[in-house]
Design a protein that fits this description.
The chain has 8 helices and 5 strands. The protein is of the alpha+beta class. It has 2 domains: 8-121, Cyclin A, domain 1 (Orthogonal Bundle); 138-219, SH3 type barrels (Roll). A 5-stranded antiparallel sheet has the order 4-3-2-1-5. Helix 1 packs across helix 5 (85-103).
Length: 220
């Protein structure tokens, strides 16, 4: 977990072993497959999935990566397992048949890849509102952060930056995690000088560029 809604107080040095495998053990691959499949059937959306993860007890949160996935999966699936299992089975079997048909094809039709899948799993979404900022605008990241899930990094909170690109609009993660709403907000790339973020300890001539939603920004 990185500093986008994650628990900064749990952070430490990042260990990057050489030749690290995709999965360290068989169970990790199974958790990945089960979570990806069941999430497409029952939810929650991935932003809500992250929000549940951020509320895990410390011993689970700082454990292996897919241990966190498993803990979230157990929590989110419990209502279905405790409720009407017939309905759950129908959804699983139906989705499995659809995915099985798709996976037997060498390639998916172009309209599926170009139009259907981006709308099913993608975050890009047209907005009826005009963008509030333009390239070159000086902005400040708002000083408050959402109490729930957020994609606003703590280390840029309250800092000054410059808009370098407008990325269109996308599903606003904070709102999506809380209510499931897919109402979009404009998304920008904002450049920050290293000195602005870390002061005298910054490496010389460092610039960090981060994509931020419009509600995180205010005019400087």
């Amino acid at each position: 977990m990185h500093d986008l809604g994650g628990k900064k107080e749990y952070f430490g040095p990042i260990e990057r072993p050489s030749s690290e495998p995709v999965f360290h053990a068989t169970w990790e691959g199974r958790v990945f497959g089960i979570a990806t499949f069941l999430q497409s059937v029952f939810g929650p959306n991935f932003d809500a999935f992250r929000a549940v993860m951020e509320r895990l007890p410390r011993d689970q949160y700082v454990g292996p990566y897919y241990q966190r996935w498993l803990a979230v999966l157990e929590q989110t699936m419990r209502p279905f397992l405790d409720g009407d299992r017939t309905v759950a089975r129908i959804k699983v079997v139906g989705t499995a048949r659809i995915l099985g048909f798709a996976m037997r094809r060498r390639t998916m039709p172009r309209f599926i890849n170009g139009w259907v899948m981006p709308r099913v799993v993608g975050g890009a979404k047209a907005s009826k509102q005009a963008p509030g900022f333009r390239v070159g605008d000086a902005v400040r990241v708002r000083t408050e952060r959402s109490a729930g899930h957020t994609r606003q990094p703590a280390y840029v909170t309250g800092r000054l930056g410059t808009v370098t690109a407008h990325r269109g609009a996308a599903v606003f993660a904070d709102r999506h995690a809380e209510s499931g709403s897919k109402s979009p907000e404009h998304l920008y790339t904002v450049a920050f000088d290293g000195d602005e973020l870390w002061g005298d300890s910054a490496e010389p001539n460092t610039e960090i560029r981060i994509e931020l939603f419009e509600p995180y920004l205010e005019r400087a």
